[in-house]
Amino acid sequence: MTSLNGAVVLVTGANGGIGTHFVHDALARGAAKVYATARKPRAWDDDRNVPLALDVTDSASIQAAVEAAPDVTVLINNAGTSVSSAGILTHTDEEIRTNVETNFLGPLFLARAFAPVLASSEEAAIIDIHSALSWWAVAGVYSATKAALWSATNSLRLELAPEGVQVVGVHVGYVDTAMAAHTTDPKTDPADLVRIVFDAVEAGEYEVLADETSVQLKAGLSAPLEAVYPQLKIANA
Ligand SMILES: NC(=O)c1ccc[n+]([C@@H]2O[C@H](COP(=O)([O-])OP(=O)(O)OC[C@H]3O[C@@H](n4cnc5c(N)ncnc54)[C@H](OP(=O)(O)O)[C@@H]3O)[C@@H](O)[C@H]2O)c1
Fold it and tell me: How far apart are the CA of 14 and the centre of ligand 1, in A?
């Protein structure tokens, strides 16, 4: 279990809808410092916030962040991007590469870069923001990258457990941020999501299923494929 009280937290994509709540909630729980990282860092209204430039797709930027933030105890891999069309056969090359680099390679390379820093701390954690879509392949390459990140998180957890680093994977359906602005479906409030995630981290849990969608989709992994994807029955009729 990892307490946020006294922690030194680094949030990627800190200016985004969920990232902003990670910054505020970490401070509310007593974090000593929060590196609020973004491609274009902004000013914050708390002295404990340290704005830091970080593009998760740029290895030089990741290296610079490790050098600028050698005291991190909680790494939150929150930055992410999505695609406007769902078809994995119809995305552009650039959409595919950007999703893979932002949603999968970025968090993996950040975890690898910060692993020695985290291992040297008495209490440390990595929080990877996956999606319910890790387990539901309806969003093309976005689903694929979130499934890949889920698997990498599972490997990181095993490899970092002996070092005392807690690795937490987060699954959630729609959250009320710019990324989900295109839909009127029910959405989780980002403040609620962040509270659920930090409660789980502080309770020593490894996985967060933040909403009913995620609970159902995880259960669906053991169901016949036609139950999870009814469109297969129609296609096969
Ligand atoms: N919203 C949902 O429905 C939902 C559901 C499940 C999971 N998630 C996941 O939750 C995480 C946060 O998303 P959100 O809902 O808060 O969306 P958001 O408001 O669009 O925020 C995404 C953030 O990621 C940042 N980002 C994108 N590419 C980056 C890069 N190369 N380097 C650094 N930062 C980068 C963006 O920064 P810029 O401001 O520079 O563009 C933005 O601040 C993502 O991983 C997303 O996949 C979201």
Answer: 9
Q: What is the pLDDT along the chain (237 residues), one digit of tens a residue?
A: 999 999 999 999 999 999 999 999 999 999 999 999 999 999 999 999 999 999 999 999 999 999 999 999 999 999 999 998 879 999 999 999 999 999 999 999 999 999 999 999 999 999 999 999 999 999 999 999 999 999 999 999 999 999 999 999 999 999 999 999 999 999 999 999 999 999 999 999 999 999 999 999 999 999 999 999 999 987 777
Ligand 1 center from residue 237 Cα (angstroms): 39
Kindly report the pTM of this predicted structure: 0.98
Whether 229 is catalytic is no
146 catalytic? Reply is yes
| Ligand 1 pocket residue status of 194, Cβ below 6 Å | no
| Dihedral pair phi/psi, residue 79, rounded to 5° | -55, 140
